[in-house]
Amino acid sequence: MTSPSRRPALPPAPPRRRGKRPPPRRASPDGGCSAPPVPPGSCSARRGAAVGYAAAPSEASAPLTSLGTDRAMFHGKHQPGITDGLQSHGHLVAFDLAAGAGRKEAAALLRRWSETARRLMAGEPSAHDDTGVARDAGPSSLTVTFGFGHSFFARTGLEKQRPASLDPLPEFSSDHLDKNRSNGDLWVQIGANDGLVAFHALRAIQKDAGAAARVRWQMNGFNRSPGATAHPMTARNLMGQIDGTRNPKPAESDFDQRVFVPAQGEPAWMANGSYAVVRRIRMLLDDWEKLSVTAQENVIGRRKSDGAALSGGTETTAMDLEKTDSQGNLAVPINAHARITRPDQNGGAAMLRRPFSFHDGIDADGVPDAGLLFICWQADPLRGFVPVQRKLDRGDALSEFIRHESSGLFAVPGGAAEGEYVGQKLLEG
């Protein structure tokens, strides 16, 4: 995943002319204003852009930068937040249905959540009791994504509709899982390129849960901000490594086959959906940072500077698994992380990784509680995540420097059509 390149500064606004007035702005429920209509065919209109204005001390409002106006669409074939670019701020939150809540209450909740997500992703305030936290910002590429955990189906009497692909993940030797921060009936992923916009969405989703569901766990993450690098590039993780080089790309002919459930797939309500594996992976940074750069590169199998395989070339050059150095040693070590995770070394198993980094402070021993909120998307986790993780379990050099501390698997249905809510085919089918 790459971030958009830095955009040049906008030129100063032309002086205001007398005569014909600009089109009126629509008042929002909190007394503010939304943007005037965007002329058809303009760049902003094509991108679903200007829907809000930043407050300014003068009478005329200045339009938001492209960072604020970028908008993801709520309605569509797939839910947002899967193929969208990495965002700089993220929140992951799991809910359990309240005692006594069932299918009826779950349907009402998903209807509320979907409407709130639609409004906030359009840069509008939520329908009820909006906090005003994000009143000065546009959509900022906000996405809100909803999924169902294994336990949701028993709670709602829908066991017969539970997909076989949602069977609990097997235990892995690298797991040190906190059950209180794992799984859940419902899962929500929030991402945005503005921290206040992301928090605003998190707060609105939590408030919408009302008496129907309670928070089971919640995690916060971040990525590099769009435009922070001189040119678009693959993201880095907290180990300083470029992370995501071999991600499947939408332009590839088998991308949909790898990432999304077929339109005629089973069960029918999961058509065009995907499965999300969520893992909180703590990085043992003090131990990692004691290694030399060369040792770090041998653990990963790629150069730290540019992400190129140790067999040579650039970041995107195919890794040569047979290449040796002058002493006859493999250029890419046999237990290097990048070698083990290659799809062609795992029966073609592939997953779309879309993570956030996290840092939750310093513990009592002075060690950072930091790492990766690993999120991967696949059409079937039994063919995507599980075989790769099993292989990593047997000899990944990176395992010495990470610890899997929480885990979840969620069925994420396809996108909602206009007038529908996410999960409607399941809950009303």
Topology:
Elements: H1 43-46, H2 66-69, E1 89-97, H3 103-121, E2 143-148, H4 150-155, E3 186-192, H5 195-209, E4 213-222, H6 255-259, E5 274-283, H7 285-288, H8 293-300, H9 337-340, E6 352-353, E7 356-362, E8 368-378, H10 385-393, E9 402-412, H11 424-427
Antiparallel strand pairs: 1-3, 1-4, 2-3, 5-8, 5-9, 6-8, 7-8
Helix pairs in contact: 3-5
Envelope shape: globular
Kindly estimate the percentage of residues that lie in beta strands according to DSSP: 15-25%
* Main sheet summary: 5 strands, antiparallel
- Helix count, per DSSP? 11
Instruction: Please give the share of residues in helix.
Output: 10-25%
Instruction: Find the structural class using helix and strand composition.
Output: alpha+beta
Gyration radius, in Å: 23 Å
- Report the span from N to C terminus: 36 Å
Q: Give the domain tally.
A: 1
Q: Number of DSSP strands?
A: 9
The succession of helices and strands, N to C, reads HHEHEHEHEHEHHHEEEHEH
Keywords: Heme, Iron, Metal-binding, Oxidoreductase, Peroxidase, Signal
Subcellular location: Cell envelope
GO molecular function, one term: metal ion binding
Protein name: Deferrochelatase
